[in-house]
C-alpha cells in the first residue's frame, strides 16, 4: 500500500471517491441519482452576475454555493434565484434543503428564506462561526 498527500485538486480522483461512497450507500438505500442543480443570472453580454449551485439527492437539495456580485446585492436577485432553485428541487421530489454559511456571510439571508440553524461550529474560522442550516419544504 502506498499513501499519498496531494496539494492540488484532482477531479477524477475526487469523483472516484464519491463513486465509492455512492456504491456503498446503494447497498443500503438502493440506487439514488445525484443530479446537479444550478440556477444562474447573467448580464445581457453573458457575464455571470449571480448563482445558486448544488445537487439533489435523497429527496434533499444540498446547496454547495450561493453568490451574488456586489453590484447586484440587496436587489432581491439572490432571493429570486434561491426560489427558482427551490421550485426545481421540489419538482424533483425534494422535501428539504441544506446549506452552510459563515457568520459574516448570509445567515440572515437564509433565515429570511425559511432556513433554520441546526448546527454551529464556533471559531471557524477564528473569530467567526460556521452555521449549518436546513429548510423543510411545504
UniProtKB/TrEMBL annotation:
GO terms for molecular function: acyltransferase activity, transferring groups other than amino-acyl groups. Pfam families: Acetyltransf_1. This is Acetyltransferase (GNAT) family protein. Signal peptide: none annotated. Keywords: Acyltransferase, Transferase. It comes from Permianibacter aggregans. Residues 1-138 form the N-acetyltransferase domain. SUPFAM superfamilies: Acyl-CoA N-acyltransferases (Nat).
Amino acid at each position: 500500500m502506498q499513501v499519498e498527500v496531494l496539494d492540488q485538486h484532482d477531479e477524477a480522483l475526487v469523483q472516484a471517491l464519491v463513486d465509492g461512497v455512492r456504491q456503498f450507500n446503494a447497498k443500503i438505500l438502493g440506487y439514488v441519482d445525484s443530479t446537479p442543480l444550478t440556477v444562474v443570472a447573467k448580464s445581457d453580454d453573458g457575464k455571470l452576475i449571480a448563482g445558486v449551485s448544488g445537487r439533489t439527492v435523497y429527496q434533499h437539495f444540498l446547496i454547495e454555493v450561493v453568490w451574488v456580485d456586489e453590484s447586484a446585492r440587496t436587489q432581491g436577485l439572490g432571493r429570486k434565484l434561491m426560489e427558482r432553485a427551490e421550485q426545481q428541487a421540489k419538482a424533483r421530489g425534494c422535501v428539504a434543503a441544506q446549506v452552510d454559511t459563515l457568520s459574516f456571510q448570509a445567515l440572515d439571508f437564509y433565515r429570511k428564506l425559511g432556513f433554520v440553524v441546526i448546527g454551529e461550529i464556533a471559531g471557524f474560522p477564528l473569530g467567526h462561526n460556521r452555521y449549518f442550516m436546513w429548510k423543510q419544504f411545504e
